[in-house]
Amino acid sequence: MSIFVINAGSSSLKYQLINVHKEQVLATGVVDRIGLDNSVIVHTSTGKNKIERKIRIEDHKGAVSHVFNIITDTEHGIIPDLTSIDAVGHRIVHGGERFIRSVRINDDVIAAIQENIELAPLHNPANLMGIYACKALLPGVPMVAVFDTAFHANMPKKAFLYGLPYNLYCEHRVRRYGFHGTSHKYVSERAARILGQNIKDIRMITCHLGNGSSVTAVQGGVSVDTSMGFTPLEGLIMGTRSGDIDAAIVPYLMDKLKMDAGQTIQYLNKKSGVLGISGISNDFRDLLKAGNTGNEKAKFALEIFSYRLKKLIGAYAAAMNGVDAIVFTGGIGENDAYTRELTLKGLEFLGIKLDKKKNQDSAGKEVVISMPESKIRVLIVPTNEELMIAMDTHKLIFKNAMN
User: Fold this and answer.
1) Which residue, of 160, 292, 373, 399, is most buried by count of CB atoms within 10 Å of its CB?
2) Catalytic residue among 148, 225, 336, 392
3) C-alpha distances in angstroms, 79 versus 1, 67, 71, 76, 389?
4) 364-399 per-position pLDDT tens digit
């Protein structure tokens, strides 16, 4: 059973072809610079050499068409023809309040995704382009929308409402939505399996740490609070995003730096975070290297990030009346031992005992890095959003059809 998983951006398209029964990636790749000069496809089929093709690609339909040509190619491909694709799973950033779980795509769902463009103007239009491309090239093949926001849809009002007039929520949909939901769902389920426990019996804090970072309180398998909000700008300091700031800073910056609203949001999204603090990079590897050679601003950036993360862990432990497991995932969470150790330092009062050797030696591995006597289990679980999308797609299309 092969599921084609697609994550369409404004000028890019990431994809994987997955055998869901074996949980095996058959092919993976990315198309960059769609609609621009020097478009490029980088593709790898399992067991074959990576290939790179530079070719002008006008739109997302053209990108998907080129990908399909490659995966069915006799030399570089992995399937004989497109009839081997049983379904398509699409990553959709924003489902608003309507979509609390993955859904099979039809005209009504497409219209609803369009309605949510005002909530995700940079992402939902691109996600729709991917849907239209696959609809044209794979007519009749079932498709599923998997929403980043869906995992957080059951948060209680006390967690998602802002301290604003209530009518802004009712009339303009202003609330915390949360993001990275597919990742938080995947790693929380995997962590429960690793620990050999029923996820309904576990209070868990999942830390998705990358250039974009978010933390989620997962109780009984359900997201009850999360750090990102109305947009992915809220929450932790991130690679280039400011995270939480006093709202009054926005008009202050507009006045002092002579920027309009759009420029200010761009400033907070693209020029802030650890990049803005350090003045060097948004890459934590660069910051660690610079900090080790005496760059104080690089050290500050790492310390501030870990301090903010530590505070969120403490807050979510309080929100759930305790915590049984803490999970690190994402590029930083999976690979940065220093950030993990710095974050957990000072949380020993919760009963956390980190195995420092395992922490240092376990980059990218699925492993428990706490000591056996630790009251709270600490894990690294590499995320796999594409597999989660494929599994949701398979369950919705094929398992439901058999019931």
Assistant:
1) 160
2) 148
3) 12, 12, 6, 10, 20
4) 999 999 999 999 999 999 999 999 999 999 999 986
